[in-house]
Amino acid sequence: MKFCGECGKRLDGASAVPAAADGPRTMFMHAASSGPVVREPICRLVTIDQTGREGMTFTLRTGDTVCGRTNGVVLFDDPYVSPTHCRFVFTSGRLHVHDQGSLNGVYLRVGADRTLADGDYLRVGRQLFRFESLAGAALQVQRVDGDDSTVWGSPHPGAFGRLIQILDDGRTGEIRLFSGDRCQLGREHGDIVIPSDGFISGKHCAFLRQGADVVLQDLGSSNGTYVRVRGEAEVANGDFLLVGNQMLRVEIV
What we know:
By secondary structure, the protein is mostly beta strands. It contains no helices and 20 strands.
C-alpha cells in the first residue's frame, strides 16, 4: 500500500508534492496585480410623460449630440420641436445645452431662486409668459411740444414689473402688473389666479422685489416653473428640461 487508508499519507516515504521541474514555473495570475478601474461618467436623458411615468431614455456620448424633430440623434415626433432644436455637449462629466435658434426654445426648471432679466420667457403649467420690467415699457401717450400739461392716466400702483401672456398664435394676451414687494401666482391663491389651468398648483410661484432685481421663486409646485435658456446653460444631475412638449430628466452618473 502506498497510502494510508485513514489519512491518505504516503507510506513509502516519498514526498506528497512532486519536485519542481527545472526552469521557471507558470505563475498564478490574481486580481491584486491589476490597477484601479476608471469609469467614465454617463449622461442620460429620460422622458417623463404627463402621468409622471418614465418613457424613452437617451444615452449621450461624450461630445456633441443634436436634438430635433428631423435632424439629430435625439428625435421627437412633436410639432413644437424644431427640425434642429438644440445641442447637448457632454464633457468631463458636465452637460451643457445649446439652443439652436429654435422657435419654442429650451426651458430649464427653476430650483433655487432665480433673478429674472428683462424679456425672460417663463412656462407655468400650460401658460407662456414674458417678464418685462416697467423701466423699458413704451410710452403710450406722447407729449406735444408747447404743451406742459400733466398726463392723465390710471393711478400708478407702484409696480416693479409685469407678466405678459403669450397666446398660442403668438399674439399678446393678458398683462398683469407686479405691485408691492411680492406677487404670487397660482390656480387657487395669489395676486394672479388662473383657475382654468389644471397644471398650475394652488400656490405655484412668486415674484419678489429685491432692490433693483426681480426674483422668481417656485413654491414647491407639482409641475415646476421653467425659464427659457438664453443661448446655452449648464444642466446638472436631476434637472428637468422642456423641449417642445417633451419633459426630460437629466441623469449624470
